[in-house]
């Protein structure tokens, strides 16, 4: 048996040196790999692409301004003083001089009742007064005569006292008849319904020919001394409101125009059905002149203890370091996002007021913040997928 060196092998009785063959194979393999790498780099422009594509993100400004911490309540324009007008006596309504929407002056006759019966009553009272005055004249004469007779000792003192008492009774009867006449005359005057002050007729609930009772409402008069907004406040937040609290009023037909107002009164008891508290917001000066009765309005009340001037959608709020509340803010220079801690107020249904940590011109990521990381490149877009910031200079240079 022949000995074989470590570098030699025998195949079919032939000795083959394996070292030269291994060196050529390795060299060929290296050449092939280098050629493949060169081809790959040539196809990619000469350098491998390791740059991560910028992620599109929806961004918003912290919006709302002074409205961010405001709560809105629907209301209706009312007069500061609304007087239901009615007759002080009953009768047949024979004439109605005004209708709803008519502007009236103080003392103007609004409606008239049939006053025939009232006139007859006044005449009867006049006749009773005449009879009582005649009895008074007779009783006075009798008293004077008996006064002379008792002085001459011709009649007793008791007889004179009786005549004096009769005189006083007749005097009382005359005063009573005079008072009855005054009442009858007043009743006749009450057949005319007059405006107690200047204003506009808000409602009319009676028509000519109708028999009305004393005290039955015929008109509602809205005085010209001011305008208010009637609103209802929720039971759960009634402690957040107080009389004298400033508010803003926005009319339905004038969106964006807000008038100053003040809460004038708050009902001490909640409505039994709606469980809300009725409140009145006073509009004074030029603000009162800009509204009309019955208009729809919205009252904005600033939340108690919240002085926020900005707000964010709830989807923008993230959990930062140490479980702090944070948001992603886009750096316009580098096109990357940075986590920023913020102080927030009470959460609403769709947004939350910002108490600190942001400025009004900051671009905040409004959705998808849980997919971002610190310093990640992003492409800010609005809700219509339109770019909101120009491309950073570094990104533009790389693209070229």
TrEMBL record:
Domain (Multidrug resistance protein MdtA-like alpha-helical hairpin): residue spans on this chain: 122-191
Domain Multidrug resistance protein MdtA-like barrel-sandwich hybrid: 88-219
Gene3D superfamilies (alphabetical): 2.40.30.170, 2.40.420.20, 2.40.50.100, Helix hairpin bin
Keywords tagged on the record: Coiled coil, Transport
Domain CusB-like beta-barrel, chain residue ranges per copy: 230-288
Name of the molecule in the record: Efflux RND transporter periplasmic adaptor subunit
Keyword Transport: yes
Coiled coil: 115-142
Superkingdom of the source species: Bacteria
Family from the record: Belongs to the membrane fusion protein (MFP) (TC 8.A.1) family.
Entry-linked SUPFAM superfamilies: HlyD-like secretion proteins
Keyword field contains DNA repair: no
Ranges where the Multidrug resistance protein MdtA-like C-terminal permuted SH3 domain occurs: 309-368
Chain residue ranges for the region called Disordered: 381-400
Main localization, broad class: other
InterPro entries: Beta-barrel_RND_2, MdtA-like_BSH, MdtA-like_C, MdtA-like_HH, RND_pump_MFP
Compartment annotation: Cell envelope
């Amino acid at each position: 048996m022949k000995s074989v060196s470590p570098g030699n092998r025998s195949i079919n009785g032939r000795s083959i040196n394996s070292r030269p063959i291994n060196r050529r194979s390795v060299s060929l393999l290296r050449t092939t790999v280098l050629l493949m790498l060169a081809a790959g780099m040539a196809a990619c422009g000469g350098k491998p692409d390791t740059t991560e594509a910028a992620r599109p993100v929806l961004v918003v400004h912290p919006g709302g301004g002074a409205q961010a911490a405001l709560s809105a309540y629907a209301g209706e324009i009312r007069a500061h003083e609304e007087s239901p007008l009615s007759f002080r006596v009953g009768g047949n309504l024979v004439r109605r001089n005004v209708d709803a929407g008519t502007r009236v002056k103080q003392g103007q006759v609004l409606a008239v009742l049939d006053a025939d019966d009232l006139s007859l009553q006044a005449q009867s009272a006049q006749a009773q007064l005449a009879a009582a005055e005649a009895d008074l004249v007779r009783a006075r004469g009798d008293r004077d005569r008996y006064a002379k007779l008792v002085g001459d000792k011709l009649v007793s003192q008791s007889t004179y006292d009786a005549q004096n008492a009769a005189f006083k009774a007749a005097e009382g009867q005359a005063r009573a008849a005079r008072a009855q006449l005054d009442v009858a005359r007043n009743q006749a005057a009450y057949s005319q319904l007059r405006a107690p002050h200047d204003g506009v007729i808000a409602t009319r609930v009676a028509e000519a020919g109708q028999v009305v009772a004393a005290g039955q409402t015929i008109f509602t008069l809205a005085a010209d001394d001011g305008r208010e907004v009637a609103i209802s406040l929720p039971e759960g937040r009634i402690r957040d409101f107080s009389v004298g609290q400033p508010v803003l009023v926005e009319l339905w037909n004038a969106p964006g125009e807000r008038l100053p107002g003040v809460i004038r009164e708050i009902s001490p008891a909640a409505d039994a059905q709606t469980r809300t508290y009725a409140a009145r917001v006073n509009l004074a000066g030029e603000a009162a002149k800009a509204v009309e009765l019955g208009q729809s309005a919205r009252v904005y009340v600033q939340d108690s203890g919240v002085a926020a001037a900005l707000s964010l959608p709830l989807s923008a709020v993230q959990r930062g370091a140490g479980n702090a509340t944070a948001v992603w803010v886009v750096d316009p220079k580098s096109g990357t996002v940075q986590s920023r801690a913020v102080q927030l107020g009470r959460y609403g249904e769709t947004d939350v007021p910002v108490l600190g940590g942001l400025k009004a011109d900051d671009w905040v990521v409004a959705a998808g913040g849980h997919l971002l990381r610190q310093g990640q490149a992003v492409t800010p877009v609005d809700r219509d997928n339109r770019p909101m910031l120009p491309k950073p200079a570094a990104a533009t240079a790389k693209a070229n």
